[in-house]
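Researcher: I've been going back and forth with a colleague about how protein disulfide-isomerase might be arranged in three dimensions. Neither of us has a model we trust, so I'd like an independent prediction. The organism is Orbilia ellipsospora, in case that matters for your notes. Sequence below.
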Amino acid sequence: MVHNPLVVAALSAGLLSPLAAGMYSSNSPVIQLSSKNFEEKILKSNHASIVEFYAPWCGHCKNLKPAYEKAAENLKGLAQVAAIDCDEDSNKQKCAEFGVQGFPTIKTFKPGKQYGKPIVQDYQGPRTAKGIVDFVIEQIPNHVTRVNSKTVTEFLQKNNETAKAILFTKKGVASPMYKALAVDFYDAITFAQIRDKETEALAVFGVERFPTLVALPGGDAEGVVYDGEMKKEPMSKFLSKFAKPRESKPVTEEKTAEKPSTSTTTSAPPKPTFDATIPEVPSMGAFEEQCGRKICVLIITPPVAPVLTPFEKTNAYINQAKLSFPFFQLPWASLSPQFKDALDLKESETPQMRAVSIKKGWSVEYKGDLNSHEEMEGWIDALKLGDLPKKKFAKLGSDVVTPPEPKEEPVKEAPKHEEL
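Model: Here is an independent structure prediction for protein disulfide-isomerase. You can compare it with whatever you and your colleague have in mind.
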C-alpha cells in the first residue's frame, strides 16, 4: 500500500498530476462510485458492499485491479464490488470522510440496524480474488427464516397476505445466493428455508425432491413450485411474478421518510462483547482436559478490551450452545506464537472466534458479525452438522497458553499493509 503523507498532501493540494484519469472502465464489473452516488449506492443499500478507495497513479492499485475485477465477477448478484477514485477533486472530501490516507484502502459496508448507517470495517484480508470473495460472502445480510416442523404453522399464518418463498434443502444454513435473493426482495417476499430432516413440515407441502423452491402468493392462493434452474437470475424472474424486487428500503422495524444523516457513518462499530461468565482458560492442562475429546469454541479477546460485558441476544444463544460446545475466553496476550500460527490468528482490535478440535487437529474461523445472534446461531448449527471448512494444524505443545507477565501492557506493532 502507498502510505506517504507527503504524497497524499501534495496530491490533495494539486501539486502532483495523476497518471491516468481513472482505472476502471465503464465495461468493468466494478461499480463506479463518486461523491454524488456514494450514499445511494453504498450507505443506503440493503446489500453488502466492498469499496476500494484508490488513486490511478498508485502501483499497488494497478496490481490489485485484475483480482478486484475477478472478485466483482464472482460476486455478481450476491454483493456489490465498487471503487472510488480519490484522485478526483470532487471525491477527495468523501475519501477523507472515511479516513483514507493511503492507497488502496479497502472497506466493507454491511447494512446496520439504522437505515443509511452501515457497519464499516477495514478489509485486511488477502489481496486476492478468493480472499475478497470469501470475506464479502460472510457479510451478506441474512433475512432467511429457518423453519422446522414445530414452527411451520406459525410461519405460514404470520403475514398470510404477503408472498412467501420457501426453499426445501439438505443444507443447514442459507446459501449466499439464497440470502442475496432475500435481500433483493426484502420487505416484499418473506424467505424461509426448511431442511430435509423436518419430515412433518415436508408432509405439509408434499416435497420429496431437494432442493425445491415453493412460492406462496399469499391469502388462499395455492403454492407454486419452481421448476427451473437453481440459479439466481431465473429464480429471481420466477419470484418477480409474485412481488417486485426492492432497490433499497430501510431494514428496520422503524421506517421513516426522514433523510438519515451520514455524519457518523465512519464511526467504528461498537466493540463486540461476550458474556463475562464465559471462563478464561487457566492453563494448557485445563484446556486439554476440557477440549481434548470434544470441540471447543474459543473467544480470543483483544488487548484493547480484555474485560467483556454481555450482548443480550448473542449471549442468550451462546449460553444455550454451551450444552453442545464448551466456550472459553483467551486473552490475546496469553497466547504463544505457536498457538497463533496454528489458528491463523492476527492481532485485532475486536474479539475473534474459533472452533477447535485438539484431538483431530483442526479449527474453524467464525467470519460473521460478532454482534449478530442469527449469524452466530447459523454458524453453530453448521458447525454441529460439519458443514464448515476446517483448517488443519499440527499437534499443539504444552506451551500453547502462557500467562502474561503481570502489570505489563502487550506490545503493539505498527500497522502493516498487505504486499501485493
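Researcher: What would you highlight for our discussion?
Model: I'd start with this: Residues 144-239 form a domain with the Glutaredoxin fold (CATH 3.40.30.10). After that, consider the following. The chain has three domains: 5-137, 144-239, 284-392.
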